[in-house]
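User: My collaborator sent over this chain with a note saying "see what the structure looks like." That's all I know about it. Can you take a look?
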Amino acid sequence: MKINESNRAFLNLLEHPKIKCFLENDKCMALMDKYILAAILLFFRRAKFNKYDYNCKNFYVTLYLIHELYEEIVELKDIIIKTYLGVKSEK
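Assistant: Without extra context I'll predict from the sequence alone. Here is the result:
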């Protein structure tokens, strides 16, 4: 997928109602800031996703991965898992 197509697919994904709601609810940018948003796009490109792979599930899985790799607050990962991926943690 070319860069322009990738950008378009990512911007369309950000307009998805679930992700739009997620971004609006994260007013303090605890789960998502510009750096993390850019990292998600970069992960999608490196994975060589096609336009159908730009979906909510991959968005939240990638968000979790980025928090796992770069962020230090465990509670935020739990929020992503429980609320957005619908998985119960093993605590």
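A starting point for your reply to your collaborator: The chain has a mean pLDDT of 86.
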